[in-house]
Amino acid sequence: MGPGGADGADGTDGTDGVDGQVTCLVCHSGTNMEAKQGQFWMSAHAVGAIAVDYAGGRQSCAQCHSHEGFVQFATLGEVLGDISNPSAWECNTCHGLHETFEGQDYALRLYAPVNPVFDNTLTMDLGGNSNLCANCHQSRRAEPGYGMTVAPTDSFEITSSHYGPHHGAQGNVVAGMGFAEIPGSVAYPEQGSSKHLTQASCVGCHMAEFTDEEGGHSFIPSVAACNECHDADLDDYNYGGVQTEVHEMLVELRDQLLALGVIEGDDEHGYHPVNSRDYPDGGVFPTVQVQAFFNWVGLEEDRSLGVHNPKYVKALLRNSIEAMEAELNALAAN
């Protein structure tokens, strides 16, 4: 074979590829980051008083009440000790390192289904990215009759003014688990059957496209998202009158608990359970009454007025009201 010929002329240059920074800039452009931060400053998550005051530095609370605590929990699985200088949440509280760098990789620190605190043998799955929320927005304890058949003679001691699910058990409400399912006339729906879980999500409702000062990183639920899903023309969240009905039941149950002496307080100063720490001669009640209180305070502090899971919330409240009516009748008979 003879020697090789001379090289031919260079071909035409190909079309330039996509800029390697384009995917990053979808989120990390200056304009987009400023918009997200502006939305976040509207959120209660950005309020230092909620994160830091009282709970932010305490080892047992810091997991959800400070930036430093949540990052430790997400990274190490625990908070190592009290935090001397806790701070409020920020972007990298929830966002860490990317894994795939694809379009839906938002670098969330946690997104797997959660083993709930009230029973870590169970799984609470709010679906993908919404599971990040469930790590904190869940009950911190089991209801007083959990795992047992409550008899009329059973009693329960409330030992703290903070007794109850905690101040934001929305994950349990959406999943339909962890509250006191007192027997009554209304059947409880199957766990995980709420349409706001199967057909919507925390992210879909609270982080819909930012418009009218709602959605996005404000986390304020979007009425526009409600209207899109329900094919409605709402100007609030009271679809089908659910919030009105639930509010009325919450007031009715509260008044029953006041009459039974389980709680004290008023609208101006708030309501709290009568407990053995603050009331040396009080705090012990029939278990069913404490179950009803657990439901009332947990659903009051859910703050959705039933929207998160209408069937579950209405069943809990109606059956609690019926049970407390029986308790009041028994008290009157004696």
TrEMBL record:
Alphabetical keyword list: Signal
InterPro entries linked: Multihaem_cyt_sf, Multiheme_Cytochr_ET
GO MF: oxidoreductase activity
SUPFAM superfamilies: Multiheme cytochromes
Domain of life: Bacteria
Name listed for the protein in its UniProt record: Uncharacterized protein
Organism: Draconibacterium sediminis
Phylogenetic classification of the source organism: Bacteria, Pseudomonadati, Bacteroidota, Bacteroidia, Marinilabiliales
